[in-house]
Fold these 2 entries.
Entry 1:
Amino acid sequence: MTKFASVILVIVTTFAAFEANTTPISENWTSPRGSYDVHATGVDRFVLERDKNNSGKPIAKFTVSPGDVFQKSTGERSEVVLGGWESSSRFRVKGNDEIEFYRVSIKLSPDWIAPQSNSHGYAWGIFFQLHGPNEYMAPPAIAIHAENKFSLFVLGGDLNAKVGGRRFLTKSDLNIGRWVDFVLEIKWAPDTTGAIAVYRRNEGESDWEKVADIKAVATLQHKGTPIPNSHYWKSGFYRSESKHENTLWLGPILRGRTFDEVAGQ
């Protein structure tokens, strides 16, 4: 596999929108800031920049400070809804029994400190998440966390059963101050016919390493009848209330039909 200098998450899904176009869908952080659906408390919490150490590629800087509670929501956050809320959004997930790949690259600030755990023992620390229908008022179906290590969270299937939880990666160190690439390979399903694999590559490495391979897991949420409604992706940083500041950078986020389509960009 090709090497990459960022953290990449690849999720795989055969998606109807890709049938006529093999070019991966991308959020490359080049649109005007005002065009993004930002969930943050100040303009300095989401900043579009250029990576000086990587040919000036566009990147997004997310900062969360104590008290950054957006519109009375729980926790503190600086996030972007990828593609917006519309049902036609290029990052909406609607299908099942299909496979997709997603890639995300992350760099944590050199002074990184893990978010503090709340009274229930959760720090969250989410930088990439698949959010279920808002009416469910549930944790994400899939999320990648950065706390004192990287981890994967999965809570798909029937939310009445609440089957899911944290799944640690075989290589979970943060590589603070340097890029880490993740690729998520996901088979979409509202039941245990789904699957997730995660691949990782650190800055300066050329080979991808599989750090999770989860079989027989639901990857979409529902309540009762196993017919999933539309899900949507968010990126940035969401954490429990903490007494320090967290800053991270995300590179372009890609959605495609094959591993090579997203990992080779």
Entry 2:
Amino acid sequence: MLDHAILISTTPRKFELHNFIYKSPVFIIRILIMKNLFYVTLAMMLMTSCGDDNKSDTKERDSIIQNRLRNMQGLHVTLPRKNIDENQDVPQIKENNVMKVILGKQDKIKVTAGEFNCKEIGMKYGLPKDSLTGEYIVEPEHLRQIAKDFISNKPKSEKYPAMTNVSYTFNEYDDDGKFVKEHRLPSGKQYSIAENHVISLTTDRGTSYSLYFKVLNELYAAYNELRDEMSINEYGKKFSELEPGEQGLINMFYKYRIFEAEPTIDE
């Protein structure tokens, strides 16, 4: 399911819409879903905050809403920005930190992971070949394992993202924004994560909605399986069975880092 893939993002951002965005096969669906969910969520929070007490203080109500919005989590995908200050330093992302998934016309998938090119990926995972072109055929279901290996750098390779040993704490708050508890891993140990990795997803004007959602589902499943593995190691149960605060802590180690690149357009 793609439930997690349609949550609204609560981080304040100003999106500029450009002509090329309308040519992406996912633009309209995403905007409609995000817009509708935002207004429904906001309306529900207003009703629950007000209740039957019409004399409740406005400032207190607004504070509750802001705290709830702050603690919500959403999809970490942003629309491309049109204008970038020419004098602004744009950070360069190292090739080994990027996994590129390209959805081309006729629903063909191309993928590179770090410094592994398409051919090397095909050989590494024993992918089938097209009998006519000799090119490796990538199916959506192949992407889950490819992404997991890329994110976790397994087996360890300099062609994959550099790993950093980290240990996080997560502060849990209630619906009123009051501090509840600080969460730490039961083992107290550090985990190696790829802090700077990025999964770049590019679509084509000829990409079908069906393929897009299948691919996105597999990419998110890669993160979810890594979260499950860590949850079982630390708590002895799957991620979905953890308490909210425990889930928040695990999320910090495996944050969704899937971004959409500028769509390709065939003239």
